[in-house]
């Protein structure tokens, strides 16, 4: 696949089944398999925290995002269900859902017009930084969140950012 990340704008009339499956392989099935592998080790100690990275796209409705958005929605739902499966073993499963964050993926599609529109719907008037997302991941990984499982924490400056 030519794109290095699991997202993108796809024309729903042109995306083929193989590309759609690839997006799910990357965004859902890989997290499911890693969760299985991690949970097997965490079960031995009776404690663990799995943090999956979903997306605001999992709840937004945007054109040309059917593969990516549905794969991230499935990841959020899978994580909530795995929280029930792994919880009795002391393993928590949560998701962090980044909003528009300054990454190479966003830079590849961001225009000044899109950024302006995103910021108009964002109370904290800036795009996210990688450390904003890292802070949410650290929260879920730390013992301070030991009674939190099956949740999605959207880190988005209080707003909803879309590419349309």
From TrEMBL:
Any Pfam family matching the protein: adh_short_C2
Keywords: Oxidoreductase
Matching Gene3D superfamilies: NAD(P)-binding Rossmann-like Domain
Keyword Nucleotide-binding included in the entry's annotation: no
The UniProt record lists the keyword Oxidoreductase: yes
SUPFAM superfamilies assigned to the protein according to its UniProt record, in alphabetical order: NAD(P)-binding Rossmann-fold domains
UniProt record similarity statement: Belongs to the short-chain dehydrogenases/reductases (SDR) family.
Protein name as catalogued: SDR family oxidoreductase
């Amino acid at each position: 696949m030519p794109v290095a990340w699991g997202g993108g704008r796809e024309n729903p009339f042109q995306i083929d089944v193989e590309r759609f499956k690839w997006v799910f392989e990357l965004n859902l099935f890989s997290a499911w398999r890693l969760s299985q592998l991690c949970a097997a080790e965490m079960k031995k100690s009776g404690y663990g925290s799995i943090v999956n990275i979903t997306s605001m796209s999992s709840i937004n409705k945007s054109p040309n995002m059917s593969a990516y958005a549905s794969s991230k929605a499935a990841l959020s739902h899978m994580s909530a269900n795995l929280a029930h499966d792994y919880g009795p073993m002391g393993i928590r499963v949560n998701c962090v859902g980044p909003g528009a964050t300054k990454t190479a993926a966003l830079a590849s599609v961001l225009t000044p017009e899109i950024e302006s529109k995103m910021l108009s719907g964002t109370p904290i008037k800036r795009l996210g930084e990688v450390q904003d997302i890292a802070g949410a991941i650290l929260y879920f990984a730390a013992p301070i969140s030991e009674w939190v499982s099956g949740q999605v924490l959207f880190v988005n400056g209080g707003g909803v950012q879309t590419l349309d």
